[in-house]
């Protein structure tokens, strides 16, 4: 009985949360114009996949990331600027969707902490060099 | 002074572990909320996906009567769990439209035959275009659209029994 259960488990097909539908037209197809494709690629590297959350849409295999890539390429091909597209997505998903966070009260620590840590390091280094000179 | 300072690294490590412990005990909310709540419904026009049921356009909303907009798919398992709750909402007099994400007519017809059909209209969204326009990050999601065409509320994930009264109230209160 236990073996049967084990074999059933081994043989069971995975239940994937995927539609198995073909990808959106421009999800995995580059734009014909290399300059436009470069622009699209640069933008896609700085947009977050909202399904996988830790990956950019350029890196993600999620179907929704494919749909987002297609959206970016379609709009770039239509002559929209990358920043307009980013703004369109930020209006829908918040700053969260962008890997290029703007400076605001919430994100200020991201920008200020490195400077504070550098200053602290310099101060510590100065103190320890001073000590050594005394010995 | 030095006697006290010697404890500083230890306290720093304790603080780090406290932060980690707190994060494990109370994980941050990873739900992606739409930034469009309170804003007008974006403009879209989707073709029908099953015969005998109209497609879905923005013009179906802003008719003075609040409606539900359900984002679903036949390949989505929580959508099956949610189906009876949507039927209960329809029973309560709530009008429900849907956007089918990355789906086929045959699969949708089969889904409706198995799980019931609470929908007045279903739009065919082959490349998640309307889903992205709504700021939705998955299936299922449900939006309450006010009679003035504004998004009043977003429900992320499947509707459970305990969510039904809240959604009915949101539809009643939406103008």
UniProtKB/TrEMBL annotation, chain A:
Residues 25-133 form the CcmH/CycL/Ccl2/NrfF N-terminal domain. The keyword Heme applies. InterPro entries: C-type_cytochrome_biogenesis, CcmH/CycL/Ccl2/NrfF_N, CcmH/CycL/NrfF/Ccl2_sf. The lineage of its organism: Bacteria, Pseudomonadati, Pseudomonadota, Alphaproteobacteria, Sphingomonadales. This is Cytochrome c-type biogenesis protein. Possible subunit of a heme lyase. CDD domains: CcmH_N (cd16378). Residues 1-17 form the signal peptide. The chain crosses the membrane at residues 103-125. Keywords: Cytochrome c-type biogenesis, Heme, Iron, Membrane, Metal-binding, Signal, Transmembrane, Transmembrane helix. Belongs to the CcmH/CycL/Ccl2/NrfF family.
TrEMBL record, chain B:
Residues 35-175 form the Thioredoxin domain. It holds the Pfam family Redoxin. It comes from the Bacteria. InterPro entries: Redoxin, Thioredoxin-like_sf, Thioredoxin_domain, Thioredoxin_ResA/DsbE_sf. Keywords: Cytochrome c-type biogenesis, Disulfide bond, Redox-active center. Its main location: other. It is found in: Cell envelope. This is Redoxin family protein.
């Amino acid at each position: 009985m236990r073996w049967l259960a084990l074999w059933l488990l081994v043989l069971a097909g995975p239940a994937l949360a995927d539609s198995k539908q073909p990808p959106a037209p421009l999800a995995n197809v580059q734009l014909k114009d290399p300059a436009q494709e470069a622009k699209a690629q640069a933008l896609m590297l700085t947009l977050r996949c909202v399904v996988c959350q830790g990956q950019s849409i350029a890196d993600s295999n999620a179907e929704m990331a494919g749909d987002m890539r297609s959206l970016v390429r379609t709009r770039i091909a239509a002559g929209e600027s990358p920043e307009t597209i980013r703004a369109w997505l930020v209006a829908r998903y918040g700053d969260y969707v962008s890997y290029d966070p703007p400076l605001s009260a919430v994100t200020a620590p991201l920008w200020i902490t490195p400077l504070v840590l550098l200053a602290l390091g310099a101060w510590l280094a100065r103190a320890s060099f001073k000590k050594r000179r005394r010995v | 002074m030095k006697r006290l300072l010697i404890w500083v690294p230890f306290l720093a490590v304790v603080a780090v572990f406290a932060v980690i412990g707190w994060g494990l005990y109370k994980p941050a909310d990873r739900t992606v909320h739409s930034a469009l709540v309170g804003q007008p419904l974006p403009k879209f026009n989707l073709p029908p996906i099953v015969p005998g049921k109209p497609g879905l356009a923005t013009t179906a909303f802003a008719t003075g009567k609040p409606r539900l907009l359900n984002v679903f798919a036949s390949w989505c398992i929580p959508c099956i769990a949610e189906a009876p709750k949507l039927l209960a909402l329809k029973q309560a007099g709530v009008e429900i439209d849907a956007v089918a994400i990355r789906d086929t007519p045959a699969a949708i017809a089969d889904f409706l035959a198995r799980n019931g059909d609470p929908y007045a209209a279903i739009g065919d969204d082959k490349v998640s275009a309307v889903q992205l326009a709504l700021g939705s990050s998955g299936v299922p999601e449900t939006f309450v659209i006010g009679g003035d065409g504004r998004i009043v509320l977003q429900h992320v994930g499947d509707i459970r029994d305990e969510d039904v009264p809240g959604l009915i109230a949101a539809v009643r209160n939406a103008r």
